[in-house]
Design goal:
Elements: H1 2-38, E1 52-53, E2 56-57, H2 63-79, E3 82-86, E4 89-93, H3 104-118, E5 123-124, H4 132-146, E6 154-157, E7 162-165, E8 170-173, H5 176-186, E9 195-197, E10 200-203, H6 209-215, E11 218-223, E12 228-233, E13 236-242, E14 245-246, E15 255-258, E16 261-264, E17 268-269, E18 283-284, E19 294-301, E20 304-308, E21 318-320, E22 324-326, H7 328-337, E23 343-347
Parallel strand pairs: 1-5, 3-9, 11-23, 14-21, 20-22
Antiparallel strand pairs: 1-2, 3-4, 6-7, 8-10, 11-12, 12-13, 15-23, 16-19, 17-18, 19-20
Helix pairs in contact: 2-3, 4-5
Length: 348
């Protein structure tokens, strides 16, 4: 009986505590909810699905992981050196040479915001900073490396020899502006080849060997000290002639001249000089006894030229008034060999 009474009392005590327990449980359950009303929600650091930067998918990644991904798949490949190969020559250009830079943090921030506003399939272009003046400087170095300067043919002569320095064709880098654009494009893509093949353009000479040779196919030199005329054809010496040259008071002019006149049995217009006497100012017909210009006339300077003479004893001396006297047979031979325009080089 006593034990039964104890159980009843115990149950009554627990029943009396029940309201207090319920109140405490409600208070504990309400505490987290109340705390949640006052705290900020956790930040969402994930980039929206479907977002790509420079063709690299980073959707669904956190910003930190996305940065690592872009560094490996975009930054490093785009920064890799580029080679330009032209006519067997290769030159490297490095990103650092061009002031190259790609701001990954800015790209990720842009991708994050764009993904939130535009949703899936957002494409963000990755355009690096590149110093265009440095690109042009690099292309200029490539141009210098492959260039071959053209050389025009040049005719050379002395009184005893004539020859030609032959022309040389050159080359230059093709379209330098287009190559600069191509270099920029390669450094702006992670998938583009790092090797560029580039051609050259031929550059012709201003004067070709064949043209210079044709212009000087016949060439005459006169050595006043030797009293000798040399005739060259196609750069080869083909004939020598003895001549009389001008007297000290009437020297044969020196320099490079060209044949401008040819006549058979030329008339002689006598200059008004003291040595001409009564003949001064007159014109003596060709073939006349008083005409010293015998058989042929080959003029190459004002009032000066090659002509035949009846005074064979003067050949080899300084006896004329500036002209070059020749044996009649010799002047006829020279006449048929020499066209108008033939160069005549006279030297002491």
């Amino acid at each position: 009986m006593w034990q039964m009474n104890r159980v009843i009392e115990h149950r009554g005590f627990l029943r009396s505590l029940l309201p207090f327990a319920i109140v405490a449980s409600l208070a504990i359950a309400a505490a987290p909810a109340q705390a949640g009303l006052n705290a900020d929600p956790p930040a969402d650091n994930t980039i929206a699905a479907g977002v790509r930067v420079g063709g690299v998918a980073i959707g669904g990644l956190t910003r930190e992981v996305a940065r690592t991904t872009l560094y490996k798949k975009l930054y490093l490949p785009m920064r890799a050196p580029v080679r330009v190969r032209s006519v067997g020559r290769v030159r490297y250009v490095y990103a650092a040479d061009l002031g190259w830079d790609l701001d990954l943090d800015a790209l990720i921030a842009k991708a994050y915001l764009a993904g939130r506003s535009l949703g899936a399939l957002t494409q963000i272009k990755a355009k690096p900073k590149i110093d265009l003046s440095s690109v042009r400087e690099f292309v200029g170095r490539v141009a210098v490396a492959v260039r071959i300067r053209t050389r025009s043919a040049k005719f050379h002569y002395t009184v005893k020899r004539v020859w030609i320095t032959p022309h040389r064709s050159g080359r230059r880098l093709a379209d330098q502006g287009a190559l600069a654009t191509t270099v920029v494009a390669r450094f702006s893509s992670a998938r583009a080849s790092r090797l560029i093949f580039w051609g050259t353009d031929p550059v012709g000479p201003a004067r070709r060997t064949v043209d210079v040779r044709q212009a000087n196919k016949v060439f005459i030199t006169v050595s006043k000290s030797e009293r000798r005329v040399r005739l060259f054809r196609w750069l080869h010496l083909v004939k020598r002639y003895r001549v009389a040259i001008g007297q000290p008071g009437y020297p044969t002019p020196e320099g490079l001249f060209h044949v401008y006149s040819k006549q058979v049995d030329p008339a002689w217009s006598v200059p008004r000089e003291s040595w001409a006497g009564d003949l001064g100012g007159k014109t003596i017909p060709g073939g006349s006894f008083d005409n010293p210009l015998k058989a042929r006339w080959i003029g190459f300077a004002p009032g000066v030229g090659f002509h035949g003479t009846a005074d064979g004893g003067s050949i080899g001396s300084a006896a004329s008034h500036g002209c070059l006297r020749m044996w009649i047979d010799d002047v006829k031979d020279l006449y048929r060999r020499v066209p108008i325009g033939t160069p005549v080089y006279v030297t002491s």
